[in-house]
Amino acid sequence: MFDRVATRYDLLNSVMTAGLHHSWRERAVDRAELSSGDSVLDVCCGTGDLSLELAGRVAPDGHVIGCDFSEPMLDLAREKATARGAAGVRFEWADALSLPYDAGRFDAVTVGFGVRNLADLDRGLREMTRVLAPGGRLVVLEITQPTRPPLSTFYSLWFDRAVPRLGAFSGDSEAYSYLPESVRGFPPPLRLAEMMDAAGLERIRWTVLAGGIIAIHSGVLGP
Ligand SMILES: C[S@@+](CC[C@H](N)C(=O)[O-])C[C@H]1O[C@@H](n2cnc3c(N)ncnc32)[C@H](O)[C@@H]1O
After folding, report:
1. How far is the CA of 29 from the centre of ligand 1 (A)?
2. What is the pLDDT of residue 95?
3. CB of 183 shorter than 6 A to ligand 1
4. Residue 40 to residue 174: CA distance in whole angstroms
5. pTM (2 decimals)?
């Protein structure tokens, strides 16, 4: 499915979020508390927007790896990096459920709008925690469900009616019916925090943005 939607992904992201996804990514990167020279892994990197934001924060001496299991997404990320002249970032194939990186390798791991899609969320969180260095930060940016009206009502109209129609208009109704379904099936913020705790992280906190539509979780791997 992600291979199929790759070429339309950026445009639909901007239309569906009215361009707000860029500021959400910036907020998520802030939570990774990066310094120049840090080494960062961006899991489920898609077309690379979050990875490129990270690369700017760790420049000039740091490194970012964006990984994903969709080659069409990775190709678009590589083209974007080249077009922007981004340095210190590379994109490579990896399955988030079995990351091909040594334990303790990264100062920070991020995942933007990715964990909701994992077939085994606990396993994905354990893998991301495994590759963190002691003191390293995991940041999870994800869509969440507002619980209070009027936003919960608007959200339901937007996600259940408008998003699948936009998807159909773009030629892939299945992929954009999957989107609201995957959000509904995803754990609420407190439960996700508990799962991060179970994966071995400490100092877990989360911020809810955009009236309850977006959650940014972070946790630290203890020394
Ligand atoms: C909704 S996109 C998010 C892309 C990007 N992080 C962003 O912020 O726009 C989800 C991405 O997760 C990837 N993905 C889903 N499951 C994966 C897995 N098990 N391993 C690696 N990538 C995965 C998909 O290929 C897709 O590119």
Report:
1. 17
2. 98
3. no
4. 33
5. 0.91
